[in-house]
Design brief:
The strands form 3 sheets. The protein has a 7-stranded mixed β-sheet. Strands 8-9 form a two-stranded antiparallel ribbon. It has 6 helices and 11 strands. Helix 1 runs parallel beside helix 6 and helix 5 crosses helix 6. The longest helix is centred in the C-terminal third of the chain and has 24 residues. It folds into 2 domains: 103 residues, 3-Layer(aba) Sandwich (Rossmann fold), CATH 3.40.50; 93 residues, Rossmann fold (3-Layer(aba) Sandwich), CATH 3.40.50.170. Helix content is 33%, strand content 26%. The protein is globular, with a radius of gyration of 17 Å. It is of the alpha/beta class.
Length: 218
């Protein structure tokens, strides 16, 4: 069973969708959440962890002398719990080298835009302000840049002329909750590989029907 370490900063609705997927959905029997780590004491995600009997830890960045030292603490906590895959779920910090080096192509993030469009904060507001007709969300492996790592799955949603940051965020969030567990499932099934920043998704072989399309929704 794949052991997940989830990092979050706030509300944790993506964390919730991953919890539910491990309990009753596409991750059942394939992945379990070993620990939730938050950087904010008041993060609502902690309550979600407690509701489901999941270990949760608040690591206060102020207790670490440097940003690298903070990510060394996170790395040590994840290693102590034998985590295989790190899942960023609304974790609002740029991941530093000590964690990336410890988990090469083993850290995933979800971003509320079709990367490389609209990286960084307020991606949905950026999309509304730019006037695009389509936006969406991206699950990607994390490298040292901001939202620059290899793309695993994307899902597109239409942008309406009267959309606000709130209405577009809600439409995108529904897709986030769908594709993040699917990306983790592909990882858990050993079907993801990275070459020259491109993620290859291997087809699954099922006993009945031979190969199945790995892309969710198809
Ligand atoms: C999500 O929309 C996620 O895509 C975004 O923060 C939100 C967290 O919501 N992440 C980023 O913008 C990372 N650059 P949640 O706490 O309810 O999952």
């Amino acid at each position: 069973m794949l052991k997940l370490g989830v990092l979050a900063s706030g509300r944790g609705s993506n964390f919730q969708s991953i919890i539910e997927s491990t309990e009753n959905g596409c991750l059942k029997g394939k992945a379990e959440i070993a620990v939730l780590i938050v950087d904010k004491e008041e993060a609502f995600a902690r309550k979600r962890a407690r509701n489901h009997g999941i270990a949760e830890v608040w690591l206060n960045p102020k207790d670490s002398p440097t940003k690298d030292a903070y990510f060394e603490r996170i790395r040590d906590e994840l290693n102590a719990r034998a985590v295989d895959l790190v899942v960023l779920a609304g974790f609002m910090r740029i991941v530093r080298k000590p964690l990336i080096d410890a988990f090469p192509n083993r850290i995933m993030n979800i971003h509320p835009a079709l990367l490389p469009a609209f990286p960084g904060l307020h991606a949905q507001q950026q999309a509304v302000d730019y006037g695009v007709r389509v936006s969406g969300c991206t699950v990607h492996f994390v490298d040292e840049g901001m939202d620059t790592g290899p793309v695993i799955i994307q899902s597109a949603v239409p942008v309406a002329p009267d959309d606000t940051e709130e209405t577009l965020s809600a439409r995108i969030l529904t897709e986030e909750h769908r594709i993040y567990p699917e990306a983790i499932r592909l990882y858990a099934e050993g079907r993801l590989s990275v070459e020259n920043r491109k993620v290859n998704i291997a087809a699954a072989r099922t006993p009945q029907s031979g190969f199945t399309n790995p892309l969710p929704g198809n």
